[in-house]
Amino acid sequence: MAHDKIPKSHPRYKSLMIREKLVEGFRRGLVVPQGLIAHGRGEAFDYILGERTHWFALEAERAAVAALLLAERPVISVNGNYAALAAREIGELARLTGALVEVNLFHRTEDRVRRIYGHLKDHGVPNLMDPECEKTHIPGLESMRGIVCVEGLYKADVVLLAIEDGDRTEAFVAAGKAVAAIDLNPFSRTAQKATITIVDEAIRATRNMIAIARDLKGKSREELESIIRSYDNRRILSAAFKAMLDRLSYAVERGFL
Ligand code: ATP
Q1: Is 98 helix (H, G, I), strand (E, B) or coil?
Q2: Looking at residue 254, what is its pLDDT?
Q3: Whose C-alpha in 5, 99, 168, 203 is 20 to 30 A from the C-alpha of 154?
Q4: Which residue owns the Cα nearest ligand 1 atom 15?
Q5: Cβ of 139: how many Cβ atoms within 10 Å?
Q6: pLDDT higher than 80, residue 11
Q7: Domain-by-domain residue ranges, the chain?
Q8: What is the pTM of this model?
């Protein structure tokens, strides 16, 4: 069903519109076919979660914003899916936190980097790392998958990423960076390896983080540090699994949700 043909009254309107954004991103060369498959995996987990933000995601989103605000070199790492879904929101979050924005791709081609960069620019995203930046590799990822900008992700101390592959998340963590990861699947290696795991849908999560950043921007360093100190990622991951279990138990008992 094309973009303009989905009636607002359709019970799955929101989810279908999000799919349309990705398909459009695919047509424009921002999203790869593998990205469409990854989206399907995310949707399945979101269905189990009831397609809404839970308290454990909000807590992780708050810690992630505090970390970005405290960071010396915060960077938002953007791939094709994240750009196609949430370019405007990424821009607003970058503005509020002062984070740099770097296009960073698993299936990297310079053409796709430039297309995504153009898409972000068209949506008013500030602090964009130039595709012509000086490049290097993240240690442990010597292939095309590891290419990053020296003045961007390579030197970043805090990285926010979304819908990302586990190897790359692990390599960032191994390189000493604090990684906040938006990933609906708490089983994934990304979710398991990240410093702060946000089990929430990427658009919802980024919008929540914008609201949180507006609130936290006025807070002192001490207050932000205390948010990070009291944050426990294992507890957050357990809560995400528990929320899924509770929804499934309820469905098992009643035969519906
Ligand atoms: P890993 O390598 O971390 O074990 P994976 O093999 O599933 O995980 P990918 O195929 O790169 O990695 O998938 C990216 C992840 O992003 C998946 O876990 C998927 O659940 C999640 N995801 C997909 N779409 C969204 C979305 N819109 N918001 C949040 N998470 C999403």
Answers
A1: coil
A2: 93
A3: 203
A4: 163
A5: 12
A6: no
A7: 55-241
A8: 0.96
209 token code pair: 């983080």
Which residue spans within 37-195 are E strands per DSSP? Answer: 74-78, 100-103, 135-137, 147-149, 158-162, 178-182
CB 117 within 8 A of CB 128: yes
Cβ proximity of 139 and 174 under 8 Å? yes
Taking a C-beta distance cutoff of 8 angstroms, is the pair 210, 95 a contact? no
Distance 218 CA to ligand 1 centre (A): 33
Ligand 1 pocket: which of 41, 61, 90 to mutate (most atoms <8 Å of CB)?
41
DSSP state string for 48-104: HTTSS--HHHHHHHHHHHHHHHH-SSEEEEE-HHHHHHHHHHHHHHHHHH--EEEE-
Contacts of 242 (CB under 8 A, 6+ apart): none
Ligand 1 centroid, distance to 31 Cα (angstroms): 14
Residue nearest to atom 10 of ligand 1 (CA): 38
Q: Which CATH class is domain 55-241?
A: alpha beta
pLDDT per residue over 41-70, tens digit each? Answer: 999 999 999 999 999 999 999 999 999 999
Question: For the segment 144-168, what is each residue's pLDDT rounded down to a tens digit?
Answer: 889 999 999 999 999 999 999 999 9
